[in-house]
């Protein structure tokens, strides 16, 4: 049930450690069935958040592709090629090499195909991981046990509620910044956290236990 990508052992270990550290407490508090339901729902929420942000980020690209199909002239292609950094996708497409050798050989149909393939890749990339569910667990722990102490690096104490808030703020900043080469789905993390908070809030309205 725990899937992950290839970003390294350290990231995998951190997620597994957080799942054990915070998840075991919540599982004991709720019971295994309720915890499993929570874990899966947070994962689904994280996936939906990621897809929503992905569509929002690429809406402009889709509109420009539609406009380019109607007017696939070379200057328009070069402008889009440079704007979206398509040299990272295919440094020199074959039809561009042909055009460099013979300016009259530019093929608008090939240009449209190349741009459409790039758009398809932007939407078809595989996102694998359980970090969204783990962030939901972290948020639920911070809400349910807000004053429990977490020892950062095993030495520095911090209340769980502040740890969750600071961590979420860092994720939000990283997601908005969208640095080149950053392959972390930050908004999937935040989506899992939001779903986790909503679930634990709803459940606690029906079961008003004392918080720690």
Brief summary of the model shown:
It contains eight helices and two strands. It has 212 residues and is mainly α. Residues 1-6 have low confidence and may be disordered.
Task: Describe the 3D structure.
- By secondary structure, this protein is mainly alpha-helical.
- The chain folds into 2 domains: 9-56 and 129-206, Rhomboid-like fold (Up-down Bundle); 71-124, no CATH class.
- The protein is built from 8 helices and 2 strands.
What's the arrangement of secondary structure elements?
Layout: H1 9-30, H2 32-70, H3 74-83, H4 94-101, H5 108-124, H6 131-144, E1 149-152, E2 156-159, H7 160-177, H8 186-206
Antiparallel strand pairs: 1-2
Q: Could you tell me the strand content as a percent range? A: under 5%
- At the first level of CATH, what is the class of the largest domain? Mainly Alpha
How many H/I helices?
Answer: 8
Q: What Rg, in angstroms, do the CA atoms define? A: 23 Å
Helix content: over 70%
CATH H-level homologous superfamily name of the largest domain? Rhomboid-like
Which fold name fills CATH's third level, the topology of the largest domain?
Rhomboid-like fold
Cα distance spanning the termini: 30 Å
């Amino acid at each position: 049930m725990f899937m992950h990508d290839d970003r390294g052992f350290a990231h995998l270990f951190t997620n597994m450690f957080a799942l054990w550290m915070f998840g075991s407490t919540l599982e004991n508090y709720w019971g295994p069935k309720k915890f499993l339901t929570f874990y899966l729902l947070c994962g689904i929420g994280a996936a939906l958040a990621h897809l929503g942000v992905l569509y929002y980020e690429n809406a402009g690209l889709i509109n420009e592709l539609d406009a380019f199909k109607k007017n696939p002239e070379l200057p328009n292609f070069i402008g889009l090629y440079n704007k979206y950094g398509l040299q990272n996708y295919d440094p020199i497409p074959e039809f561009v090499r042909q055009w460099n050798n013979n300016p009259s050989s530019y093929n608008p149909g090939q240009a449209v195909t190349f741009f459409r393939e790039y758009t398809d890749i932007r939407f078809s990339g595989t996102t694998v991981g359980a970090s969204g569910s783990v962030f939901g667990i972290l948020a639920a722990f911070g809400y349910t046990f807000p004053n429990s102490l977490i020892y950062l690096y095993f030495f520095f104490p911090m209340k769980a509620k502040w740890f969750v808030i600071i961590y979420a703020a860092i994720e939000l900043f990283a997601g908005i910044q969208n640095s080149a080469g950053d392959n972390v789905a930050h908004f999937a993390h935040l989506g899992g956290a939001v779903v986790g908070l909503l679930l634990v809030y709803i459940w606690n309205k029906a079961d008003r236990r004392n918080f720690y």
